[in-house]
Amino acid sequence: MIRKRLLRHRWLLLVLAVALAITLGATGRESLSRAQEPGLETTEGPSVSGHVLDPLGEPVHDAEIVALAGGGQETVAETASQGDGSYLLDLPQGHYEALTIEISRPHFESHEIELEPAAMSRLNAGQPVRVEDVTLERRITAGFWVATLSFVLVLLLIALERLHKTTAALLGVALVLGTSFVGGALSPDLFIFDFERALSYVDFDVIFLVLGMMIVIAVIEETGIFQWMAYQAYRLSGGRIWLLVTILIAITAVASALLDNVTTMLLMAPITIQIALTLGLNPLTLLIPEVLASNVGGISTLIGTPTNILIGSYAGLGFNDFLLKLTPGVVAALVVLVLYVVLRYRRSFAAAGGELSDAMRQRLKESGRITQPAKLRKAGTIFGFMLLLFVVGDTIHLVPAVTAIMGAVAMLLWVSPDIEEMLHVVDWTTLMFFIALFITVGALQEVGLISIIATGIGDLVGDNLTAAILVLVWSAALLSGVIDNIPFAATMLPVVAYLTRTVPGAESGVLWFGLSVGAAMGGNSTLIGASPNLVTAGISERAGFRITYLDFLKVGLPATIVTVIVGTLWLFIRF
Amino acid sequence: MNKILCATRGGEASRRTQEAVIEMARQEGATIVFLYVVDVEFLRLTARGVRPDVVSTEMEHMGEFLLAIAVERAQKGGVAAEAVVRHGPLIEALESAALEQGADAIAFGRPAGVESSFSLSDLEAMAARITEDTGIETFIV
User: What is the pLDDT of residue B115?
Assistant: First the structure.
């Protein structure tokens, strides 16, 4: 009965959900703005205020600030720095001969400020004193090595497939938090961060965006749209293989940009194999170009790759930023990719010859039909609205995570009302992976490794923006081929933020887009470089066509080099 | 020998196996059951939200397509053949399909270098285990 009523009034519920989400989005933005404002105001009476910064110029929170009088023997006031690095010491009224402000925090060298006679006079007159900003120098502690080695261990376990990604990331969390709580009690140098601080590193915009998109994609993927598109590519190409591969590359790139490149490949690969066999082609000659296109195509939107989701949330870049600033470069890279694969596989394409019966062609047609047209119409309508909201979201301060949640709720209410089923299809393991990864990378920030990397790269590139772009894009591309690009991108976010602040000309945001281009295109260089590569290889092997590491490298590495060159050139042209 | 079960896929190595089994069936006057086992274990390689049920259905369609090619090939060779798709771990799927179909023998293709997922010793061990479990003769062609 209740279910029937809910279904009858689902439009009303949908409207309510949309209104609620918009309200939450706007409220969230306001809260965020308020949270970012400097938190302390001066008070009546003698006080000392200032800011504590790290070597990157980032605010240092929770630093212990102590005012010492009597030659450093008597504590007269103490406080902790706020999220924006500011602090305010309210001093008791009285006469002070001298005052020392001592600032200390784990993983930093302690710093002392001796107040000048003029400042002492103001304090003794009951007036506030503002002291200079303090930059704390980093200190390598035992906790630094624990956090660093834990992260390296996580990367190795993922790269060598010794543990599931999520298990590996959770192991990293257990190591850094366990060391903080157990080791920290034995030695302060082993303390990394407390639980509350660890959770503050989790980016819930990312979590909710991924969660919402999972539900949306889960509904769309069962409609048969991917398979239908692949079949249409076969039909339209009329047996011309170069045209077929061009259309398949275009379809895969667009689907990867708008939905998700792993899902795209999982659903495109089986029917692509059937198309290839129908045409008498080795399926790898179509599958590998598709997977290369899926990694490149995803770059052009905020939701196209997990690395873009991470970058967009951290840097405050919206859907339009990626779409407008990267799409022309992505299109150029795809054109080059088409030329490359047609040249690379020209002999295989020329030797292709259909040998299957009409019955098999009919079977292929059956595989390429839309299985749930009614559901596709509804899901397509909602997804269209979502895209519209992603585009206008920047203007109305609607964060992408809220749009994704609104879309997911709309899918639940109108298209697929079984909440149990939908929650079952949400991959909680993936969400846990992101949460654990944020905490593990947060530990690196806490102990100062990120700071060391950032200043190291900063010293290397100096004030040269061209050098910064080249170093970032190509190191991201190179490393993404050998380590998982999601942890890599998560680690690089504060580094890029530092370079964006310090390298002249980088304020245009070019380095964020450089990270996006390098991390995603670099995934094409090896079989383990990106998730779509691995799942495509999995499907292909189960069809009897194994993609070995070397097979992929031979095609993927040159493709990576040419597409990254195009991507780099585009960054220079656009910015 | 009346009925041979042949687990198969679609690559060149599978084609050689199919042709060998078709020839054997023709000589013995047997029929063939081509089996494709859907296995989505590879999904664990990605830490991304995917729906195993939808992927499994697509793999099933692909398996049916690959088996239809094998059946056509057998029919062209003058041998009656049918196709069966199973889900789950390979050995369990093979054993249940063989028993259900009343197969007298199970044929495996000899591993062919990097194309193969198995080594010869792994395949021999698997064949021996299936014979022990089901009492059905196994052979590698």
Answer: 61
User: What crossing angle do the helices spanning A400-410 and A10-36 adopt, rounded to 10°?
Assistant: 170
Mean pLDDT for chain A overall = 88
Q: Using CB atoms, pick whichever of A263, A266, A356 lies closest to residue B69.
A: A356
Number of folded domains in chain B? 1
ipTM of the complex: 0.88
pTM of the complete model: 0.83
C-alpha to C-alpha distance for A519 and A481, rounded to whole angstroms? 9
Given B46, B54, B72, which is nearest A534 (Cβ)?
B46
Q: Which residues of B touch A364 (CB under 8 A)?
A: 65
Q: Which of A308, A542, A549, A552 to mutate to test the interface with B (most CBs of B within 10 A)?
A: A542
Determine contact, residues A123/A48, Cβ cutoff 8 Å.
yes
Topology of domain A47-135, CATH: Immunoglobulin-like (2.60.40)
Residue found under tokens 């094998």: B70
- Express each pLDDT in A370-425 by its tens digit: 999 999 999 999 999 999 999 998 888 899 999 999 999 999 998 877 788 777 77
Would strands A64-69 and A74-80 be described as parallel, antiparallel, or unpaired? antiparallel
Q: Domain of residue B32: give its range.
A: 3-140
Beta carbons of A62 and A446 less than 8 angstroms apart: no
What are A186's two structure tokens?
A: 């034995």
* Closest alpha carbon within chain B to A356: B69
Count chain A–chain B contacts defined by CB atoms under 8 A.
129
* Domains of chain A by residue range: 47-135, 142-188, 205-574
Domain of B86: which CATH number? 3.40.50.620
Separation between Cα atoms, residue A521 and residue A476, nearest integer Å:
9
Using the predicted structure, report yes or no on whether residue A29 has a pLDDT greater than 90. Answer: no
Sign of CA dihedral A105, A106, A108, A114: positive
Q: What is the DSSP letter of A300?
A: G
Cβ-in-10-Å burial (0-12, 13-18, 19+) of A544 comes to buried
pLDDT in tens, A233-285: 999 998 899 999 999 999 999 999 998 888 899 999 999 999 999 998 999 99
Compute φ and ψ for A305, nearest 5 degrees: -140, 155
pLDDT for the residue numbered B130: 92
